[in-house]
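Re: the request from the purification team.
They wanted to know what the chain is likely to look like in 3D before they choose a buffer screen. I agreed to run a prediction and write the result into the notebook, where they can find it.
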Amino acid sequence: MAHPDDAEITCAGTLMRLADDGWETHIATLTAGDCGSLTGDATEVARTRIAEGTAAASLAGASFHCLNEPDGRVVYDRTALQKVIDLFRSIAPTLVITMPMSDYHADHEITGQMGRAASFVFAAPNASTLPLVPGSTIPHLYYCDGHGGTDRLGQKTEPTTRIEISEQLDRKTEMLACHASQREWLRVHNGIDEYLSTMRCYNHTRGSECGVEAAEVFVQHTGHAYPANDLLAELFPLNRSCQNEVIDASAALGS
């Protein structure tokens, strides 16, 4: 993800379902969100937001990582990309959820580009000086929902994958509530007055589209060399008609 709280808004319910099924889960942010405050210097804000992200991740049984790129000024360059590759190298994810490459925030878009690039190359022996975890390979890759289900120009995006999170929505709300520093910031800067209820209402809307109480949606990347089967839909079918398998030593990364 780009910022602390992005995972909580877009994919935390799905990460909870994976964790509950025995997956090792991680939430990573490129930035500490140091521009996301009306008060405090960058160091102070970063410290607060990293603490909030760590606390939120723990509620989902996930580890939290921050790569400390500057908030609002994320650029696609070799140094930043290497940080992402090295993180992937150490985790060896088999499933990656990253940000949409067309969204209202440029940090989100560049994060999506880096998530795609790192997922493709991290398992190449020469991509990192870190040791290669046995079995590392190109993972399943998904892009999370853009703000309001639209791209950077306000055009609606069509999901390929819908995951029910009705039973996880209250826990997801608790995770998002960990980011207390964002409530006033979003009210003034983004015009979002009800931080938690806005998230819940949107998940209810996405759920109503597929006949469940609440859902998160994704677009799967199935380009050359990426797995083509919809792993998330297979694990969590909407009709809940099949038993979910616990996959040993699997790792899911929200990046």
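For the purification team: DSSP finds nine helices and seven strands in the chain.
Please add any questions underneath this entry.
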